[in-house]
Amino acid sequence: MAKKLSIVGQQAAPKIDRRALRAKHFRGRASVITLGCAKNQVDSEVMAGVLKGRGYEMVSDVEEAEVAVVNTCGFLESSIQESLKCIRDVAALKKGGKLRRLVVAGCLVNRMGQELRETLPDVDSYLSIDDILKVGDAVGSGFETILDDAARPYFLYDDTMPRCVSTGSYTAYVKVSEGCNRPCTFCIIPKIRGAMRSRTLQSVVQEVETLGAHGVREVNLVAQDLTSYGSDIQESDLTQLLRALNDTQAVPWIRLLYAYPVGTTEELLRTVGELPNVCDYFDIPLQHSSEAVLRAMKRPIGKFAARKMVEFIHKVVPQMAIRTTFIVGFPGETEEDVRDLEQFVGEGHFMNVGVFTYSREAGTPSFGYEGQIAEEEKAERRERVMLAQQRALEKTLAPFVGQTLEVLVEGVHPESDQLLVSRSRFQAPEVDGTVIINRVKGKNIPESGTLGRVEVTQVAGYDLIGTYLSDTRAPHNADVIELNIGPSVAAG
Q: How far apart are the C-alpha atoms of 373 and 31, rounded to whole Å?
């Protein structure tokens, strides 16, 4: 079977013969705007693949497009407002720009349905997350989702579907399952995306092999509940999947994003630690350290409580870099709970931490809980926990000075064309710190997607700074290209 997946990125975008396109099946320019998480991004890339197959030229600038798709996020009230603003901004282009068709897709459609139709008259068509393969019809004839839970088809992406990867030619997200069965009282995702359903092991392996054949160097496995992968189809589990992916040698870096405490077994951790192509990186949102708060959230407690989980991970794989997220301001959270979380974070267990304020979401059990906390207080608590992480990270990163790290070069730094930006194995794209390159040993500047090594010379906030060793066999006195680090970056 010929693969339909195509790579469109920084180095892989093919030259377009516009005359041939117009002569054959060119339908215009289309732009897909993604809001929300990496799982949403995969959905957007599938829709872009469908549109490209229909004859549309994909463009990143929506102002140059005749057709636009806004793939929305509806997870939190803040993301709802961001999605609504984006839709209205794009809709304005129908009056003063080239735009002639606007499709709204994704989580917000599943969550708000008819309400969107009543408040956004300039939208031509709506697509739920289960109908994204029909985006070609939606931008043309005006196909529109009929939201009927009883007849819901429950879409599941697989390797046979068209996809235009938008993350560059060297990195990609691969969604291994859809939906979630967990009962977290703050989360609306199970209602939006449905019950968990896993792809087959063969489908995931085939996709990763195709990505690797197109030059992708890093694959980030994503799911709402990664550690439950395969439990619904009883065909394989995450450990077996990792071994199968490692055996293919298709990509040198494989990373896990969004594990769940239940399912984080000793076998899984040892597998991550032993397989050379799997990064020693574990993203496990613990959400809090207080067992009282975790109980109210309906998160795992007992042997899966936060402190015990961290101790367990580092006992099995001492070198594991742990990323986690916490929620502050959950209903009923006390000052003692916040101090406990501050202390826990300040102990330096984590390489990367995200802290979010609780969002009161209609349709979730915690919406009606007593003890709701004011927004100002939530923000103050978040700042305290983030400060604890910043202080702890200084000590965590300091030992890397003088070490040599394997890095994936991403290109010119967004704040200075005199710097390069890269990431180590313990830094995921978009959400973690980076390794900034301010000097290159040798005469060749590494291109985006190059795997190389950097000698770390200093710490700058959440980032590391160092010299790229373009050839580890070069003599010590090899030429050095100064890239001149700027003060804004050095300040972190």
A: 40
